[in-house]
Amino acid sequence: QVQLVESGGGLVQAGGSLRLSCAASGRTLSDYVMGWFRQPPGKEREFVGDISWRIGMTQLADSVKGRFTISRDSAKNTMYLQMNALKPEDTAVYFCAARHISTWPPDRYDYWGQGTQVTVSS
Q1: Is a pLDDT exceeding 90 seen at residue 35?
Q2: Which DSSP state fits 8?
Q3: Nearest Cα to 68, choosing from 56, 58, 55, 78?
Q4: Lowest CB count within 10 Å: 26, 42, 79, 110, which one?
């Protein structure tokens, strides 16, 4: 089991920045992919990006490329989502998730945090 706890959400003006954290416990993460997702009000949950823990390779959704970055601190077992140049359409509940590298299909995440609210005012 992997337990995930997000933090760092809040209210920010458009153009501002926030950094979300996802603290993981329960397993060594070297064989896991960690992801960020978000669910805007009244909409489906969507993929934001992910990071392969062992090699640190990241990928980001087109909607956030150039504004968001994902990183991890292996010593702290924590993943981060740095969000810059925030827009009102980034308003959502942000979730972190984890899947083992052998999980199939590869977009299936088995472990989820409780979510943290990000609100961007115009």
Answers
A1: yes
A2: -
A3: 58
A4: 42
